[in-house]
Every structure is written in structure tokens, then in C-alpha cells.
Amino acid sequence: MKRPIGLIAVVGAGLLLATSIAATQMAVVPVIDGASAIWFKPSARATLPAYSEFKTPGGRIGLINATGPTETKDHPFFIPLGTNGRACVSCHQPADAMSLSVETIRTRWRQSGGSDPIFASVDGANCPNLPAKDPKSHSLLLEKGLFRIPLPWPSAPYAGKKITPEFTIEVVSDPTGCNTNPIYGLKSDHPTISVYRRPRMNANLTHVVETGYQFKFFSSKTGFPLATDPDTGKPVTMALMSDARQLTLKGQAFAAAGDHMTAKVRMTPEQQQRLEKFQRGLYVAKVGDDVGGSLVEPGGPPALGPLALQKKRVGGLGDNLNNPVFGDFSMWKRPDGAKLTAAEAYRASVARGHDVFFLRPFWIRDAAHMNNIGIGNPALRTCSTCHNQQLTGIDTGPGWMDIGSSNQPWADPAPDLPLFRITCDPKARPHPYLGRVILTHDPGRALITGKCIDVGAFNMHQFRGLSARAPYFTNGGAATVRAVVDFYNRRFEMKLTEQEASDLTHFLEAL
Amino acid sequence: MLRLFDQVGLGLALSAMVTPALAQAVKPGDHVSFIACPILRTTEFPCWMARSGGELYFVGVQDTTAAVFKPPEFQHQMLVEGEVAAGDRICGGVPLKNVTVSVRTELDPTCNIIIPAEGYASPPHNRGAGPASIQQKERPPALDPKPPFTAQDFHVQYLFEREHPWILEGRQIEAAMRYALASHASRIEVVGYRGAAKLSDGTIVEEPAGMARWRAELVAEALRDLHVEGEYSVKWKDEVAGYALADRRVDIRVIP
Predict the structure, then answer these.
(1) A147, A91 in Cβ contact below 8 A?
(2) Which of residues 423-482 of A touch B (CB under 8 A)?
(3) Contact predicate A355/B51, CB 8 Å
(4) pTM check: above 0.80
(5) Residues B205-249: tens digit of each pLDDT
(6) Rounded to 5 degrees, what are φ and ψ at A436?
(7) Are A430 and B105 in contact (CB < 8 Å)?
(8) How far is residue A327's CA from residue A345's CA, in Å, rounded to a whole number?
(9) Do the beta carbons of residue A464 and residue A511 sit within 8 Å?
């Protein structure tokens, strides 16, 4: 059945509206330039309502804008802050759960002839020297939703400290040409390594940036203090970016304006504060499924929908039966063999999938910053061991982890991505499971810390609104949620049955 | 890389290579110290084992990251230090008490031994493989120290060859931080040590040269990151401090 892309106006107030949003408000269809649309162009005159819903493949997501109806025309999230025409919203679109799906990117390419600012050569092309508007120049963005992230090498000072790398980087394969380019590459006058990553979700951020459970000073991953907010001195979660290179929303905003938007003038403090207040008020999650119906009906799983994220205390550890990561799904369970409607069957599958996620042990093995933090290698545990933060599925640890999404031998083949050989100093502590010579498509956190032990480690993405923002993993390596499940099934030899894999997929897609 | 369950056969083969006749009888109270590859027995809840001197030992089980016992890791040898406990074998191995497992730094890809359950019961364990039965209680905020303030010592313990403390040991750094901030410390003295292990067969294994310095510098850096100001003295003792667990440490002295 064809699923038209478009906006859905929710008519009538439901429980979702009654408890938080004024009963007179409804999900309003954002209107841009007189027409309803799902693409927010920078500088468009529109209103982002207090609550809106957007059609996604297989269902719809709901977006709470807790700061209230927001006029976009002069709002720092929606206006270009730099010189290339991009705004924050360019890569963090409401209809894509505040990220950017590859389907949307391709649509924009077709609609704009490749001239939309998201294709700006600075990082919207495989390398800035490639001919603009040629799809081959933007293949990683068009095929996997990846933006180029150029990082200095050796690393820039981090958290006020000079970094002395423990390893050297060689380029083994350079399909984009950027890492060996004489102007943009590792041997240029400003040595730079280019890696390619997905934009992260710009919503539910209070859960991502605020320290919650217990680890108020120390990282359980490193055993050492968490980095601190340079303005307040308070510990930060270090979970905002895939490599934790920016520690706060403020830092990320300024960096993004300079890097992604090529801003030459810094935004004002007032703009930044307004931006951050807006960002912190965004909550998004799936609210409806084409087969399963409404996911936020009274009596349903309490974790579903964006209201749960808005209301919940942040940072709780959910790897326990008292307060599970995603709460209770038992009301959707049905006896085996029962005659079910399509919606009931879908919901029962989601409930079973929840149990696969939360209860089904498997061997977690050779995952740096997981197996070597005191649980042993291997450890017989569940998905919720690592994906343990209530309602988001990130790690309260906090911190980055190498599960093999980028490092060989576990990474899926990616001939379109650069391949690097990392050679660690003999005196440095080696990667605990890969040793001192590592082949990787993206060294991850190691590009920031210079540490061998961090090669290929990334902060995990949230689980919410997944259906709106394919593909997945930091390198876009999984085109579908099912592909994510298949990666884990292979990587950790989970031996999932087809039913379990299908159920787990439905569960993740319902979040 | 061997698939996990293909390693069972290798484990059985390696296990069979031990000659029981060479086993030295150990008795409760004996101190044992040896380096070996970890062995995983796939009982319903897994057992960590080790072979040394012809004997099979039960070493411990997986737990939480905050647990005192740290399990071993495949691809690494481990230093096992403990005392033979009284009582029946667990998972077919001699039980140990006061056991410490230190995962060695360098990789050893042969350390991947899995042996089957062979009908043994799961060992005692605090936390199952699934979710915890209850949510860990959030630690209550630590009380800030109150005057009068005098020079105070804190000791950060390390496992063998480890330069980062674990969660529980790291709380000593936090305690030093609180005392320093409360007392407006004028001086922080950090001294790092490295130790050695005397194995049951008489071999001495030292922590790497440089370990004392790494530990001292990392602790000082941590205290600075925690906004502890004052004059810092950061020293280390290059010579091996001793064979005890306590010799692998950093001492922090906070002087108001």
C-alpha cells in the first residue's frame, strides 16, 4: 500500500493533549509559504506548533515543542547563521524526527537540482573539490545520509588540554579522494582527516545532556572525572555527539555554525540562548503505526509517544525490573494461537520484541568500553545492558563504545568509505580486543582523545523516532531497522529466530 | 577469529592436555597467585575458571560494574591472587576467597577457552544475566567534610597493570576532592607506586616501569579536572613498592 508522505492533522483532543498541552490545541499542520509542507527551508515563514505530527514510512511521529508555537522567520534555529544558506533546521528537520533521512535528502536533491544548502560542498559533498551538483560528488550523502566531518590531525586541544596521539593514521583506501587530497587531506598544510557521519537527533536532548543516575562526577567507562561544562563547571554527560568532541549544546551550536554553516560571525549570546531553550523543549517519538494504529492510546505502553519523554525525570538507569528502560508492554501481549486483528498482531509483536530487547541474554563480546569496564569478556547480558537509559536507550554510563560498526573485522563491508590503518605506539595501552594495528572506516572518539583504546568508539544514538530517520549507525551502515538487528545478530552471534528478529524490529520501530 | 561456540572444542582439547597427576594438592588457607588464561564454563550462569599447577580453580562470576570482583577478559591473560577457600568445588573448580583478578594489558589471542557445562550447576551470583531485580539506588549525596581540617590521606587502589581506578576506587579521588574543596586545601601531594606479584611458583612479575608515574599524573589530572586548586606535588616511586595488593596505589595527601 502506498504511503503518501504528508502531514496529518490530529482532530480532537486525546489523552496526549489533555495532560500537557492545552485541551484546545491540536496537532497543527505547519504551513510554509502558504502550503503545508514537511521541509523547513531556512528563512521560511512558518510556525512550528506546540504539537505536530508527521507521516513517516509505516506510521507517524509526534513532535512536542514545549516552548510553544514558534515563528520561524527570525528564530536562530530556522535562519541561516552562516554564509552557505544553511540553518540548524537544514539537517535537523521536524518531519525526520529532528534528524535527516536519506529519503528526504534524495527528495531535496530532486526538488532543488542539487542546489539546496544541505549539499554545500564544505561537508555536503564527499570532498569540497568535487564538482557541485554532480550526484557522484555527493554520493555518501545521497546514498547513506552522511556528511563529511573534517577533523584536524593530530587532534585539537580538548577540554583545555593538549592531546598527544598514541597512534599514527595511514590511508589504506580513499574512495572519496579527500583524505589524500593535497589541500583537504592528511598530508595537507592543515592535516585533516575526513570521516563521514549521520546527523544526530536534535530532540529529547534534556535526556542526553543532563547527568542523571549516580555518575555525577566520574565516568564509569573511564574511571575518571566526566568533562565539565566550561561555563558552569558542572559535569556533563559527554553523550551529545558521536565522539563527544563538543560537550554542551552551546559548544555544539557555535561549532556547527562555524563548521557546517561556514559562519564568519559568531551568533550573539541571545541567539544562542534562544536556540538552546528551543532545542531543550523538543520531544519526539513515534505516535502511530499504519498497521498498529495509535501508539499513545490510554492504557497502552506508557513509554511510547513524546509526552513520556517530556514528563520523565532524566537519566534513570533502566536495566532493572523496577523501572525498565521502556516500561511495560504487557498490556499488548496476547496468548499464542489467539485470533488477532492486524493491529493486535502488530502490537503483540512489539510486546514480544520488547522482551527480546529487555530480557533475552546473549554474549556481549570484544566491545571496547563495555566488556573492559568490569563486566568481563564475554558477558552474558541483554540489549538493555548497554542501552540502559530510560526512554532513550542511550547509555547512562555515559560514554562511547566500540561494537565494530566501523572497525574491522566486524564492520559491514563499506567500499565507499575511507579505510584507515591505525598503528598504536608500542608503549600505549592497546585497544583491548584489536591490539595495536586496527583497520577502521572511522576512528571515532580516538580522533578526539588520541587514545588507541578509543579507536572506533562512538556514543550510541537514541532509539526514538527511528522510523523517521533512516539509515542508522554513525556511518549510515544500516539502511533499515531490520539491518540494525541483523548486524547485532551477526556481531554477537545472538542466534535470533526469524520471529525474534522481526519482533525486535517492530519494537524498535515503535519507539 | 573463532566463533564463540566453535571454541568449545578447542577448550576441551586444551583442558585435556593437563595431566591430573601433576596437580599439586591445595588446601584451604593456601595463598595462590598465578597467571593464566581465563576459561569460561558455559553453565546456565557462566563460571569463570582458571588452570594452574594442574588444578582447576573457580575464579568468579560476572557482576555489575560497581562490584568489587572484576571478571577476566578473553584475549588477555589474567593474574589471579587469592586464598583457597574451604568447601565444595564450584563449577568443578577449587573455590577461592579474597580473590582478585587483574586483566593483563597485552593481548593474547589464545586466551579464548570455553568449556561446556558438563552438568555443573550455576555458581552463586548476585545478578543474573537479565535485568537487575531492583533499580540500583542512587547514591545519596556525600556529606561535605566539616572543620576542623587537618592533613588527610587518601589511598587509591589499582589492579595489577591498571592505570585507571575502577568506580569504587575512584571514590577515593572523589573523597580527596571533597576534602580539598571543603578545607580550601593549600597543597595536594600525590605519590604513585607500582607493585609486583610473587607467583606461587616463585616467579616475580613486576608492573611496567612507568606505571607509578602514569598513575600519579592521572590522579593529579583528575583532581585538577575536579577543580581542586592549590600547590601540587606529584611524585612517583620507580622502584617496586612490594608484592601486596596495597602496593599498587596512589597516595593523596590533602593539606589544608
Answers:
(1) yes
(2) 427, 429-430, 432-433, 435
(3) no
(4) yes
(5) 999 999 999 999 999 999 998 899 999 999 999 999 999 999 999
(6) -110, 0
(7) yes
(8) 20
(9) yes
